[in-house]
Amino acid sequence: MKKLFFILLASIFFTSCGHKEGAHNHDHHGHHHDHEHNAKLHLTGYNDIFEIYAEADPFVTGQESTILTHITWLNNFKPLSSGKVTAILNVGGKQYTYKVDLPIQAGIYRIAITPKESGTATLTYQIETRDTTSTIEIKGIDIYTNEHEAHEMAEAITPKSINVINFTKEQSWDVDFATEQAKYEPLGQSIKTIAQVQPTPKDDRVVTAKSSGIVLLPYNALYAGSTVSTGQQICTITSQGMEANNLGIRFIEAQNNYNTAKENYERDLQLAKDKIVSQKELSESKREYENCKAIYDNMLKNFNSGSETVSSPINGYVKEIFVQNGTFVEVGTPIMTISENRDLILIAEVQQKYLPLLANLYTANIRNPHNNTYISLDSLEGKIISYGKSLQSDCYLIPVTMQIRNTNHFVAGELLDIYLKTRSSEPVISVPTSAILEEQGTYYVMVQLYPELFEKREVKLGVSDGQRTEIKQGIKVHERIVSRGATIVKLSQASSSLDPHAGHVH
Questions:
Q1: How many whole angstroms separate alpha carbon 385 and alpha carbon 402?
Q2: What pLDDT sits at residue 12?
């Protein structure tokens, strides 16, 4: 009796574990399905907005097939958290429609369809969100009349490889992850070198003394690198206690000249009405008045108690200061240089063996040392200005000059890694450089077999422009590879089984 009791208890336990009504729980550890068959169909579809990954029971006439549909935004590879989904199975001219208003959890929609006809079907998804309506078709789905045959065929078409790695959608949604297709396009030879950042001459303004006197720097002293704005006081020049070039005397002179010129102009204006003064004389009188007024207004604005305020003419930063507090300066003496730092010059130097390629230069990729990412010259509104046509006796490197808009806070004098790109008419298969993994001199990429199964595949590399790398051997055009997060997928291999369904509980 005791033996019979334990047999009955075990039977109840396994029955309850394998057939919980409506049980379907997705988490980081796996999926739970309410079917005893392990074989599943793995259906994938894309448009410009979404990725569809549907894990479905094989379709058999007269039987309900559960379709777990994972919907991912392609702009960030995160799950669709809300929205209405309509699935339409079209077979033999008949349609079977199933509508879902909400996901069972973020990104996962549970759909059930019972086909009545066998044949080859198309599964169409209509996704409706607050901001967009989108359609994705998945073609070539077989519907069988025999359940055993359906599951055997599903098992047969499941990808098998000794290097497969199971990485669920829930896992990919939680990390920085993305995939993209390998491209077949021209990828010209690139020249890797170093470029030095230099300011553009037009961005620098030298502030000079407009009068003679003693320089007084502000209490909150400026230093090289200090940010300044247009009209901000950067120093004052005083001549108090000085007999020569006294600012107080100059101010009075400017005031008297202005008053005299104003009176003369107003008088000539009245005399011109009576044609006592000619138009030429009136014009000269007006010009003299305007000149005196400009000088007086400038001194009035900047003059205060025997001193003159010197202000920044532009927004920018202090590049260099030429004087110290208390320095005596003459009119025209440079005080400091202020740079807008808006545009920058990049000077790269390349070996002379690359001279034949320089005529085909068209852009470049620049490594940003602040975040270790590569930026295209185009994204910086940049352009290649020139390259050296001859070699100097004391230098055997050829300069290449580029101009960029400083949107990434580069600093003059900084050294940047750069890939100079040349045009090529020959297309090659290429992937993002971020997709490539290296192990002891051997290179790999993670190829997507379907959105939860990846293959670690060895590849042979060709040329690179920093952002993309040619793949000479190992993948085919349009195969989908992991472009961001390849290392994370690789690390998950330790916890994955060789079974493609590893991580799923059926």
A1: 5
A2: 32
